Amino acid sequence: MRAASLLALITAALLTATGVATAHESPWRQTGHTTAENRVSGEGLTTLRLPGHAPEIVYRNGATIPQPLKDEGWGHVGDPDSLRGYVFDVYQDTVTPTPTRKMYLVTKPDGTTTEFVHPLAADEPAPNANAEVAATPDGQWLVSGPLGEIDRLYVSATPFLNPRGPKQAGDLPVAGRIHLDHHIRSAQGCDFVSSTRLICATSDPNNDLYPTNLQLLQIDLPRPLNGHDVTAKVREISQVPLVSTCTGTFTPEGVDYDAGVLRVEVVPPAPCNTVTDVYSFERR
């Protein structure tokens, strides 16, 4: 049997087993690779563009959490996003046994910060409630989600940028939900690559939801977000890159999209995890 025919049969078998559509060829090609020290990286990244300054890739990990926030109980930071000089961070309560809240920290272009503490709704999982955040390209909406197996993402009006969003510290209410046509598990980072498409990286160790584990997923919306519920289609693009001289567990983390370049963080196995690998992709 020819290799191409065998590959087609294997692909068909995977699709039959999972019921999930996957691309025969990834729409993204890897164009670069760099590393960042794990003292500042490993939980997320975003490109910050401030007027009069060169673009800067901002990394997040536990050591980047300001001590006053830790004192308030915010012991975990997720994958951030940035737009128009604003930085949006998501925090999880790691002190309360059963958390009832999550927090969005917005840093303005002038460096001032505002906390938006959101009481969890009935359908918002308490564990790992704020794993990642992504701002829509028009700046009007923030999309966030928890870490476990989920069937929806949560949409809120962007503080300061959306007229419907809050302008001072307080709640950041859920305005709508993105209902997913296929479950995803352990989405560590997401970013918009267009007004109707999100790319997410997961640390899902299993292949029961998709043909591979540690997936790079594409979430397609039927229209740009407007604050109302919407149903989105999910498909796997590929597995994230797993390249290291060490063997063991890889952990995909943050996702960033800026100026046509998609970046994905992957923490390699110990003892190689003194750095975080950052892979760059561009559309084919």
Give an overview of the whole structure.
- With 284 residues, the protein is mainly β.
- The protein contains 2 helices and 19 strands.
- The strands form 4 sheets. An 8-stranded mixed β-sheet has the order 9-10-11-12-16-15-14-13, with no helix packed on it. Strands 4, 5, 6, 7 and 8 form a 5-stranded antiparallel β-sheet that branches. Strands 1-19-18-17 form a 4-stranded antiparallel β-sheet, with no helix packed on it.
- A hairpin with a 7-residue loop joins β6 and β7.
- It starts with a helix and ends with a strand.
- The model is unreliable at 1-19 (pLDDT under 50).
Low-confidence stretches: 1-19
User: What is the end-to-end distance?
Assistant: 30 Å
The best one-word shape is globular
* Rg on CA atoms, Å: 18 Å
Order of helices and strands: HEEEHEEEEEEEEEEEEEEEE
Short description:
The chain has helices at residues 3-18, 67-71; strands at 28-37, 44-48, 56-60, 74-77, 81-83, 86-93, 101-107, 113-119, 132-135, 141-145, 149-157, 176-185, 187-194, 197-202, 215-220, 230-239, 251-258, 261-267, 275-283. By secondary structure, it is mainly β.
Write the layout of secondary structure elements.
Blueprint: H1 3-18, E1 28-37, E2 44-48, E3 56-60, H2 67-71, E4 74-77, E5 81-83, E6 86-93, E7 101-107, E8 113-119, E9 132-135, E10 141-145, E11 149-157, E12 176-185, E13 187-194, E14 197-202, E15 215-220, E16 230-239, E17 251-258, E18 261-267, E19 275-283
Parallel strand pairs: 12-16
Antiparallel strand pairs: 1-19, 2-3, 4-6, 5-6, 6-7, 7-8, 9-10, 10-11, 11-12, 13-14, 14-15, 15-16, 17-18, 18-19
